[in-house]
């Protein structure tokens, strides 16, 4: 059983575009370009417009996408996919831990400090660029989307998945910036890098 998507050419284009997105924000970080001012402005604006209810909701979204939660969910889904569909689909969920390891490695290359706020909501000792939560959400929900697209018989289910999974990734990204854990470019770079990894991994896995 093999994926009908992404085809090799489409996969290559997708990987290149996603890496280009990551490279753009990485370059802006190293060059301290205009994106640095955008990052700071967005972070300060969100910090000044926090609302108690929204803060609680964003903290919950963030907590549900911690590393251990995504790894546990990936293991459970991998077992279910392997049992109900095909063992190869279980292997697809390996993209989650491998994608997280890749992201951690890149963090240690750039070593960007976390945002500094007068009233921080969260505290982390790790580096900021790219966002681990955004990376984990991208590879996890992206893998789920690939499986749904390959196996769902009804167009409505595929259409719903195509809307819901990116929306969940966007929500996680927003939560990290809102909470002051990351800059905007951190989460966008993570989405770019992790999308490239997801597409490359899935294509290689299902064309064996």
What does this molecule look like?
The chain is 76% helix and 0% strand. It is mainly alpha-helical and 208 residues long. The chain has one domain (8-206): Vanadium-containing Chloroperoxidase, domain 1 (Up-down Bundle), CATH 1.20.144. The model has no long low-confidence stretch (mean pLDDT 89).
Low-confidence stretches: none
Named CATH topology? Vanadium-containing Chloroperoxidase, domain 1
Q: Which structural class should the secondary elements be placed in?
A: mainly alpha
The quaternary organization reads as single chain
Please describe the structure with a list of short key phrases separated by commas or semicolons.
PAP2/HPO_sf; transmembrane; single chain; PAP2/HPO; 208 residues; Vanadium-containing Chloroperoxidase, domain 1; transmembrane helix; globular; mainly alpha; membrane
